[in-house]
Amino acid sequence: MKPLLSKTTKPFIIYVLIILVISIPVYYIVVDTIWKGELDEHNGTIAEKTAYEFNSLKLSDQELEKSLVLWNQIQPGTDIKKALSNSAKKDVFFTVEKQKTFVSQPEIERYRCLMKVIYINKKPFLFTVETNIEESQETVAAIALVTIFFFLLIVVGLLFLNKRLSASVWEPFRNTLDKLKTFNLNSQTKIEFDKTEITEFEELNRSLRKLIEHNISVFKTQKEFTENASHELQTPLAILKNKLDILLQSEDLTQRQYQIAEEMNRALTRSSRINKNLLLLAKIDNSQFDNTEIIRFDGLLHQSMEILQEHFDQKNISVDKNISVDIKVNGNSGLTEVLINNLILNAIRHTSPNGSISVKLTSCVLEVANSGTEKLNTELLFKRFSKLSADHKGSGLGLAIIREICKFHQWKISYKFENRLHIFSVIL
Q1: I need a surface site. Which of 111, 171, 255, 411 has the fewest CB within 10 A?
Q2: pLDDT per residue over 372-414, tens digit each?
Q3: How many CA atoms lie within 13 A of 285 on its CB side?
Q4: Ranges for the Histidine kinase domain (predicted)?
């Protein structure tokens, strides 16, 4: 993730860079056009001045011819010769590239040329003059360098200003964020945000204040409901179960009556278990558990394995344990114990008699694998009240509870079927 300022600064810098790249050829075209215009005017002035000076000398035709020959020899870049009948009557401007012949290291340069008919001694002459315009490229290069310098100056200044401004302008936002990070819904304490002169941050604080107040109210209502439901439902269920236990011990029951009472007892036991699991899910959803304990995960795992040993023995299941020592995690010990028990009980239910279960624990993963014949339906795997097999006698909430506990601890639960083994992995 990147800070907000970097996301706004980067596009701005890219935009400025694109404009800079585009501006360089534009500079060249503009400067070159201006330069050519100035040179055309300059060349026109030279032609007119040359004609004026020759006319002012009032030379004879022979002297004029000699002077023109001498002029063409000693004056580079100009040429004066008699105009032909088909000579252009209008001034002709054009650009040529040619090699310098009067320098030690010949090089190709551009020249701006003018062909103009001038009159000396009232006779037409074709005057040609060419002026070097290579300096325009050097001018553009200088402008480009200056532009790049100012671009770098803008970028450095922008980064510096953003860094300085972020410390002051964004301070109210960071204060709000810090308070939200430390907010705990269980404490049901309202957050008092600092006053700020920035309209957007003040509106954000007001919206957050209303949202938190609403969430506290809803959380309080849901918590009261779960507490009331836990008390109001468990008490009559316990009384009913106690009465059924007494009834089942009665010697006056017929065989048919005993079967009916036993079925009622099983249904009541399952209802009680479902009620407890639903209340547990509601408490997890409402964040009514603390997750700041330091848990000895390996100790909880050994404890659960010992408690469930009777279930292994009933189905004659062989158990392979590979549990690392001194594995500590942050979380809630009660929920972690429920997760471990549900994972192992789920493995026991889906393991045939005389099957095998392996439990592996490392510093980063808990893996429970059991023998099986076919892959479970992954679409229904963690859904509430889903039936994964016909002989499944659980409440249908075990894996859903496992998933919610993993979400609460920010762990990841996954399932795969490999080598005829159902493998559930919890990445810690």
Answers
A1: 255
A2: 888 887 777 888 776 655 444 556 788 888 998 998 888 999 9
A3: 13
A4: 228-428
The per-residue pLDDT for 425 is 93
130 closest CA partner among 39, 204, 194: 39
Domains (range + CATH), the chain: 4-154 (3.30.450), 199-285 (1.20.58), 293-427 (3.30.565.10)
Looking at residue 392, what is its pLDDT?
47
* Beta carbons of 368 and 424 less than 8 angstroms apart: yes
Q: What 3-state DSSP class applies to 359? A: strand
> Whose structure tokens read 């014949």?
373
Q: Token digits for 188?
A: 């049901």
Q: Looking at residue 87, what is its pLDDT? A: 63
What DSSP state is assigned to residue 378?
T
> Which of these, 101, 136, 96, 94, lies nearest to 116 by C-alpha position?
94
Q: How far is CA 133 from CA 38, 102, 104, 156, 205, in A?
A: 10, 17, 20, 36, 65
pLDDT digits (tens, 9 = 90+) for 347-368: 998 888 999 999 999 988 999 9
pTM more than 0.70: no
Q: Which amino acid does the sequence have at 273? A: R
Give the burial class of 127: count Cβ atoms within 10 A of its Cβ; 0-12 exposed, 13-18 middle, 19 or more buried: buried
Please identify every stretch of the chain with a pLDDT value under 50, giving residue numbers as ranges. Answer: 390-392
Cα separation, 428 vs 422, in Å, equals: 19
